[in-house]
Amino acid sequence: MPMDEEYGEYIRSDIADIKQTGGRGAGSVTAAKILEHFVGNARWAHLDIAGTSYVDSVKAHQEKGGTGVGVRTLTELAQLLAQSNKK
């Protein structure tokens, strides 16, 4: 994901530290730029699940509602990190 400083312009504000939304363009990147503002030097990742997190109507392969996208990925990551910390 490009994290160039120019994307920071989308969240600049005249009255606040940053804006909570970057507008319609570059949504994933501006969301990541908002997070970047708070994490400092910590290692981090922005998992953009907004488009896949909820189904508005029943589909042939999915029920209406929350999809649980990312839950298995985060569970696997937590297990891998727990195993690496045991070594």
UniProtKB/TrEMBL annotation:
Matching Pfam families: Peptidase_M17
A Gene Ontology cellular-component term: cytoplasm
Chain ranges of the Cytosol aminopeptidase domain: 1-74
Source organism, top-level taxon: Bacteria
Alphabetized UniProt keyword annotations: Aminopeptidase, Hydrolase, Protease
One GO biological process term: proteolysis
GO terms of molecular function: manganese ion binding; metalloaminopeptidase activity
Family: Belongs to the peptidase M17 family.
Function: Presumably involved in the processing and regular turnover of intracellular proteins. Catalyzes the removal of unsubstituted N-terminal amino acids from various peptides.
Entry protein name: Probable cytosol aminopeptidase
